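Protein modeling request. Please complete all fields; requests missing the sequence field cannot be processed.
Requester role: graduate student
Desired output: 3D structure, token encoding
Chains: 1
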Amino acid sequence: MPDEAITGGLTAVAGLEVGHFTDPRRPTGCTVILARGGAIAGVDVRGASPGTRETDLLDPVNAIDTVHAIVLAGGSAFGLDAAGGVMRWLDERGIGARIGERPGADGRAPMIVPIVPAAILFDLWVGDPRIRPDAAAGYAACEAATRAAPAEGNVGAGAGASVGKLFGIERAMKGGVGTASITVGAITVSALVAVNAIGDVVDPVTRQVVAGARSVDGKSLLGTMAALRRGELPTALATQAGAATTIAVVATDAILTKPQATKVAQMAHDGLARSIEPVHTMGDGDVVFALATCASGQRAATTLVGALAADVLAEAVLRAVRAACGIAGAGLPDLPASSDLAAAKR
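Delivered output (346 residues):
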């Protein structure tokens, strides 16, 4: 996608807010996408090691089609606890599905149940694994949520993210959060992603590796796919279930139905396939949520929205590793950022 087409981040879609919580004790955290007015939602899970909550609810054959927040979190399966704090924050504000309308003389109000799907990534090998996002972290992310352009890099769910792990964490690099959007005619399509892939991040235009597995001396990019084609074998740890995961939200202000949002989520995975190699592995739990706020009042072809979603998601992946900062130190693996390797060449 040409750079001039990128107009902003996920919050360029009206009706959405983004908040990060980044834990000061170790690189981990969570990111919440708030849809206070509700958003039609779909999801597609492609990785073999997903950690999710409420994704079955988003199946097009199931009843509820509207969500009030999406949570992306580090901390492996422990990080799903963050959604509880998001539910509490929404509940305190009366935001949620109205369950049990009870007309009659008693005048009791309906029960409000916030719908908060979530997905997690594995970052427990970055610092003390006993520290992971919890309900308080999710609540804090809601408190931080705004309509401003979301921060990128080492924040929220991407704080402890890494990429290029097929040959071991000691040869990996720093991942992070990235976001991008595009407006075409009367509709806007956007994406936000926490990139924590087993594979390398590649530029889909040039096919050059931007961040990923490093050479044995750690000073240059290896090129994971080229190494595999030469017969170099991945480490046993890298092929274990749940070692990584890239999680994302794509969104539009166009009017979509739940089945259409599901198709958009499916098509958006093409953006991951263009920018991460290999992707959807046994060690990844890759998940893409799709949201439609319908705020533009415009209908749009599902194929158009899905194609644009894949494009902006690929751009968001690139932005994530380019915005990331390297980490190192006591108890932390040495994870340089793409900018660190570029600077070393100069």
